[in-house]
Amino acid sequence: MAGVMKRRLVQAAAALAGLLLGGTLAATVWAQQLVADLSSHLIAITTGFTGTEVVLFGTTDGAGDVAIVVTGPRAPATVRRKQRVAGMWMNTDSLRFDQVPSFYTVAVSRPLDQLVGRPVLERHQLGLPQLQLPVDTALPPEELAAYRSALIRNKQRQGLYAISMGQVAFLGERLFRTNIYFPANVPTGLYNVEALLIRDGEVVSAQTTPLVVSKIGFSAEVSDFARNRPVVYGVAAVLGAIAAGWAAGAAFRRV
Amino acid sequence: MQVYLPIAEMSVNALLVLGMGWLVGFLSGMFGVGGGFLMTPLLIFIGVPPAIAVGTQANQLVAASVSGVLAHWRRGNVDVKLGVVMLGGGVLGTAVGVWIFGILQRLGQIDIAITLSYVFFLGTIGGMMLVESSRAILRRRAPTAKRGKLHRHIWLHGLPFKMRFQRSKLYISALLPAGIGVVGGMLVAIMGIGGGFLLVPAMIYLLNMPAGLVAGTSLFQIIFTTAAATMLQAATNQTVDAMLALLLLIGGVIGAQFGTKAGTRLRGETARLALSLIVVGVALKLAFDLFSRPDDLYTLTMGLR
């Protein structure tokens, strides 16, 4: 009896809150429709790092589809095009993109074209064709498209942009999970993992979870050292090499 | 066993890199060259960015030339005075080379510059060695052939700033060894090689140095140019991966010991012929890549570079 009473009280309170606050706090109510989290919020790149998998799991408040967008830190990037010059293939033209995600992958519970229309795909940058890659130079559309697809193709070859969409699996109606794979060459930085709940062709709820990819231990110390004190690092590298060469020469002297 | 390279930001198979170090060390021990010209293309082949391959290779060569010079030092086969003069040019050349490297990197032309320098230098030197060693082998079979003149006086010997090098029994312009040093230093910075394959013939044919002193003296100055290149690459381009250098070093040192023993069983001209075939082979492979259509005409560089 007490349990039923309690649940009713909660439902009543929620209904009341919904009535009172109405649209002004819509986002708060939205957030409760979808809750998601990662099995780990830190990917540690150690000396033995060969890539890793992170599990994203969550629950919805009812039927619906889920899309997960993982975006790595954005950075400028240059795409260069080779042409034949005196018989040799060399870089002749280039295009600079301002804000290129270093990593990008999408996982969905059903093919996206069955779920939402183009405007929604574009608004949430769902899928590689919708990924926004701004440039600072004016170019004919077909040129721009060639550079853009080259950027995506190169990223896919490096394993940093997914070639196909991942699968979000539902366990029952509300519980979902998906595995996100990060290869050994994953760029470091702050990642955004966005979970979207889709109902009737609209995104009705969204939640963003941060994920940090960072070098840890020896490899972190080496790269921090190299970046922060480059001159001292150079001296240390030379001294280390001299010591190693000397030791080797001495060790093999009588062999 | 996979090992993560902190500067290259990639994971490589440690045994593969050790094996590469061993193989190049073996060849360098056998032929008495640094082997950088083989290592840099191999590193690029397994996916190490060219800039990091070059910077790291310079670091590895410091160790290789230190261990190499010790043996020559004990036998007194190092002309320190001449080495120091070459070194003056070498450090200048390295600084200029690192500066050019940075500019080419920003222009997006560093890859083709590295490849072109390889094709040019390896092709020229390898071709000359090939001709010279096959002639020597033919001459051995026909012992009646005449010997050439021991010393030819060319315009190079008329340059100013003459200096006396007692150890090498030479009285030549200091500009000559310094100029050779400049070229060697630029090669270290741009190609990631010690430049021994260029320095050794230059010292023999241009300076007329006694052959016994050449290897030790060139290694002596390579220690300093590679050390300068390592420091400059680390400070300006941040392209020295200590982890990768360590792996190459371990493999290289062990390989060199085996190579030196194998080398003692080879005749001089046979060894030179074999080496020239390898050098020409690498040059031809790189030239072929330069002229054949790449799989993807577009390349991507992240970051500001």
From TrEMBL, chain A:
Pfam families in alphabetical order: Alph_Pro_TM
Keyword annotations from UniProtKB, A to Z: Membrane, Signal, Transmembrane, Transmembrane helix
Range of residues in the leader sequence: 1-26
Superkingdom of origin: Bacteria
Segments traversing the membrane: 231-252
Keyword Membrane attributed: yes
Protein name in UniProt: TIGR02186 family protein
Species: Azospirillum lipoferum
Origin organism lineage: Bacteria, Pseudomonadati, Pseudomonadota, Alphaproteobacteria, Rhodospirillales
Automatic annotation (TrEMBL), chain B:
InterPro entries from the UniProt entry: TM_pro_TauE-like (IPR002781), TSUP/Inactive_protease-like (IPR051598)
Keyword terms of this UniProt record: Cell membrane, Membrane, Transmembrane, Transmembrane helix
Any single GO CC term annotated in Swiss-Prot or TrEMBL for this entry: plasma membrane
UniProt keyword Cytoplasm present: no
Membrane topology, from the record: Multi-pass membrane protein
Taxonomy, superkingdom: Bacteria
Ranges that cross the membrane: 12-38, 44-70, 82-104, 110-131, 170-199, 211-232, 239-258, 270-288
Location within or outside the cell: Cell membrane; Membrane
Keyword Transmembrane: yes
Annotated Pfam families: TauE
Family statement: Belongs to the 4-toluene sulfonate uptake permease (TSUP) (TC 2.A.102) family.
Protein name, entry field: Probable membrane transporter protein
Native source organism of the sequence: Azospirillum lipoferum
